[in-house]
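Figure 2 data, in text form.
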Amino acid sequence: MTTTITAQIKTPAPSTSAKVIQTVGLTDIEIAYSRPSANNRLIFGDQGLIPYGKLWRTGANAATKITFGDEVTISGKKLKEGAYAILTKPGASAWEVYFYTYETGNWSNYKDKKPALVATVNSILTNDKTETLTIGFDDIKMNSASLLFLWENTKIALPFVVDVDDKAMASIKSTLAGPTAIDYFRAASYMHDAGKDLNTALSYIQKANNSNPRFFQLRREALILADLGRKKEAIVAAKKSTELAIKAKNDDFVRLNEKSIKEWSK
């Protein structure tokens, strides 16, 4: 009898993977990329590893992936929330940065596709050398930051803006407006299911139904009323629930209410 053992040898990758997560304003942004090192090579330029004017995957191994949690504005143009592959075209004095809707880690698949956004940004020559490609964020403010590319003696800082005011004001208004109908419904449902203070549960569910009656909320009110021994009121609530369930074409709640009404009418 011959036994074959399959094993995988693990060795360090020449270009390690990295992940950067940053919150700008109220927007979460994540970058996943591979980090090649210079290793005494000339990186940018006509005689370099990455010639000027040629599309570059902006990393090693796979396409660099950036994910925006919300819409951002780059060079005055909107870029919707979602994941994008970043490709760049380095130049002596400026770079073109391309954002493609992310589909695959195979960067060559994007060459013939139309980018979602293209931005041009000046290239900065630095005195300090960055041995290993670094992508991250700089100049972070309340509603803006710069997407940063550093390698060798080259620095690229692409500014972008996030929407803070609309999100912050929406959160403020929602919080200060107090609990929603769904909040009251969830509180009442928990208290009812847990067998806690049913009178308080009833007050919560009635607040929900006074502001925005829905068939499932009225069903909960009927059940709480029945458990409190107030079956006539429970039947009234169940009938209202049935009417709304019929309009919503929810046959399950119609059947449940009809069964309960029959039982409570005895």
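Caption note: The chain has two domains: 16-162, 179-264.
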